[in-house]
Amino acid sequence: MKIVLASNSPRRKELLEQAHFRFEVEPAKVEEVFDESLPIDEALMKVAQTKAMDVADVYPDYVVIGADTIVYFQGKRLGKPKNKNEAKRCLHALSNQTHEVKTGVCIIKDHQCYPFVETTKVHFRDVSNDEINRYVNSGSCMDKAGAYGIQECDFVEWIDGSYSNVVGLPMERICQFFHVRF
Ligand SMILES: Cc1cn([C@H]2C[C@H](O)[C@@H](COP(=O)(O)OP(=O)(O)OP(=O)(O)O)O2)c(=O)[nH]c1=O
């Protein structure tokens, strides 16, 4: 079975590699448009599907994996920060609070779409202004939903659910789909 990952994210590539998948990488060339009129999970699956379908056009005989990760907090979707100030505001808001990380996935196989959403609860400890400034100024938060990477900061006190889902792909469910042991 030939697999292609429709993503630009180095984290998703790494997660699939760690699980010993063999695959190509072809980032989708579509704008991420969120349909705010839909319930959050539906909107997320739609974005993942748009990414997967874009690549399926070019790789018709491959199984395509598309995904999109967001932070969901107090009924609001937090994507990648637009600038450092927004990143700081976002981390302040998440400090000492519990939020959800949602990854929408769409797998296209034999012209059929298999979409799903995985949700992980994440709790931040109390994070000081200094810590937030230092982390944001290091720059690595800018390409990450919610302005943090669980794999590179120590703000997370506990999680409930899939860790890899927070990083960008729910590997338990991906492996289940492909009948691979996780
Ligand atoms: C919350 C969180 C997100 N992230 C990353 C995963 C995703 O790469 C990114 C969310 O952006 P996405 O838009 O889901 O993905 P992407 O733009 O990196 O790649 P593509 O659209 O081509 O698939 O945030 C982490 O690495 N660690 C975290 O703890």
From TrEMBL:
<keyword id="KW-0546">Nucleotide metabolism</keyword>
<keyword id="KW-0378">Hydrolase</keyword>
<dbReference type="Pfam" id="PF02545">
    <property type="entry name" value="Maf"/>
</dbReference>
<feature type="site" description="Important for substrate specificity">
    <location>
        <position position="11"/>
    </location>
</feature>
<feature type="site" description="Important for substrate specificity">
    <location>
        <position position="151"/>
    </location>
</feature>
<keyword id="KW-0963">Cytoplasm</keyword>
<feature type="site" description="Important for substrate specificity">
    <location>
        <position position="69"/>
    </location>
</feature>
<comment type="function">
    <text>Nucleoside triphosphate pyrophosphatase that hydrolyzes dTTP and UTP. May have a dual role in cell division arrest and in preventing the incorporation of modified nucleotides into cellular nucleic acids.</text>
</comment>
<feature type="active site" description="Proton acceptor">
    <location>
        <position position="68"/>
    </location>
</feature>
<comment type="similarity">
    <text>Belongs to the Maf family. YhdE subfamily.</text>
</comment>
<dbReference type="InterPro" id="IPR003697">
    <property type="entry name" value="Maf-like"/>
</dbReference>
<dbReference type="InterPro" id="IPR029001">
    <property type="entry name" value="ITPase-like_fam"/>
</dbReference>
<protein>
    <recommendedName>
        <fullName>dTTP/UTP pyrophosphatase</fullName>
        <ecNumber>3.6.1.9</ecNumber>
    </recommendedName>
</protein>
